[in-house]
Amino acid sequence: xxxxxxxxxxxxxxxxxxxxxxxxxxxxxxxxxxxxxxxxxxxxxxxxxxxxxxxxxxxxxxxxxxxxxxxxxxxxxxxxxxxxxxxxxxxxxxxxxxxxxxxxxxxxxxxxxxxxxxxxxxxxxxxxxxxxxxxxxxxxxxxxxxxxxxxxxxxxxxxxxxxxxxxxxxxxxxxxxxxxxxxxxxxxxxxxxxxxxxxxxxxxxxxxxxxxxxxxxxx
Length: 219
Hints:
By secondary structure, the chain is an alpha+beta fold.
């Protein structure tokens, strides 16, 4: 089914929020600098990306908002017990969205390694249907292409998707003064049959709180 057909079948609406990820960037840099060397004693054992933090924050927010962690069926809404999150992988041309299952139970290193493994297998056409079928949520990140903001099409039977823009320095006003900040724009596409506007907004507020203060994910 092409994206235009999906948008006619699923009543999409969009919510957009700017996230100040300065603290996230600092924590990411510290963790990457502290990474031990891998088996070759040269390459770091892990290299965390912004997307790894985004995925973890989305997983934690899904658990806090079970009404968002759901899928539409013809007979009933299916609520998910775990945060099973798809990650869009560019196949050039085309894309596929393999899933990180039970993401709320995994740490950043485990998420990072799993996403890299899934992406490699996707590009080598070695994914199994069980690797990309199901889930309740997806993340599409075009920040590496310099995209400031975009909208993404929901992957059925999922009910929502994040479109992640690039992290960039912008001028913001704090305490009446203009200061630089690292801002990332996130646009959430929602299936209105599952998620109403207020529910989606509350979920996005929780996600924003997690990425702006990553330590809160430990609470």
